[in-house]
Amino acid sequence: MNPIEQLQAKLEQRFPEVQATLMAPATKTGSWWLDLTIEGQSVTVEWRHKDGFGVSSPPFEGYGEGPDECFPTIDAAFERIETILLSKQGTKDKELTLGEIRTALNRSQADIGKVLGTAQNAVSKMERRGDVRVSSLASFLSALGGRLQLRAIFPGWTVNIRLGDDTPPVPSEVQPPPTTTSRTASTGRTARAPSSHSLASLTQNRAWET
Amino acid sequence: MGSHMVRRQQVSKDARFQEFLRRLAEAPPASSYVTAYDLIASTLNGVEDELSEISYAPSQWRTDGRMYPPLEDNIHRVQNRPDVRLLRSKGHLTYIRENGAFEIRIRNAPLGIDEIEIAKPGADGRGVWNR
Chain B contacts of A21, Cβ < 8 Å? Predict the structure, then answer.
């Protein structure tokens, strides 16, 4: 039995009522697909020899896109699928902490620190922080191979947010030079002159919260 | 102006997918499995290059949010139809026949029905399932 056949057997043992369909590839290197359904709740699992398990649940809005979540081991995939089937919540309903995202992608804090040019304990601090700078978050996700997307959700309307061009390219801990800043007397807030840096450029710098 | 200053309007994945289907429908029919696959792949890559803000990076396909054509090694056999090949992705089933006809269906496991998104005949006028 290969790993996805083992996963199927484990899930059928845990959920005897599950409807499971396994689709084998025509080639050795292709993907295996396992479709699972219980009482209207469905989960799709993709497995490839080198990539581990990809877990997704409907609705699927695109074509040929990657799985919603990836897991390197049978146990990790089983645990997640079990939660989805029991809770009746899809993969898209899940919120993960930064540490959980990193772990799901099988990366260590040291790995991320190396990419970002910072210490492992700074990565650890950021993962535990409740209030994170947008630029730091973007850098963290970029180091994992992803990207940050900001979305505003209103009743009946969801829209992606694009930040303006005047986002400062420096962390708050570093005071900008006087020629580009002024401190307002009434609020004490720092006002910065527009800069040519975009959020994309911010993800390239090594500004980091410690 | 640096490249980081170039702004493109963000287009949702669903809108990009609908544009992909629209372009496929308007394209001339394919005459073989290979030309049909190439039509699907080049159309999708063209839409994503133009409308997504995500660079083409096949090695990142699992996590980058871009839509990619099904991998050519991700072929599945179709029972009793050796002339039809199935390419699977997480939400879609793409059937391509040797005559260039193809069908893209959305996987709808809970209902047990796969809904057809597009069915395009081959250059000979026959669909995927017409004998």
Answer: 109
Q: How far is CA B74 from the centre of its chain?
A: 13
Distances (CA, A) of A69 to A57, A101, B81: 10, 9, 33
**Interface touch A56/B108, C-beta < 8 Å:** no
Residues 6 or more apart in contact with residue A142 via CB below 8 angstroms: A148, A203
Q: Which residues pair with A158 in a beta bridge?
A: A153
Cα angle A119, A111, A79; round to 5:
120
Q: What is the bridge-based pairing of β-strands B75-77 and A190-192? A: unpaired
Name the minimum distance, in Å, from the CA of B27 to any CA of chain A.
Answer: 18
Give the pLDDT confidence of A150-178 residue by residue, as tens digits.
Answer: 877 666 566 778 887 665 443 333 333 33
DSSP at B83: T
- What confidence tens digit (pLDDT) does each residue in A45-94 have? 999 888 889 999 888 878 887 788 888 889 999 999 998 888 877 776 66
CB B34 within 8 A of CB B54: no
Cβ–Cβ below 8 Å for A42 and B109: yes
CA distances from B72 to A96, A110, B24, B68, B114 (A): 33, 36, 19, 11, 22
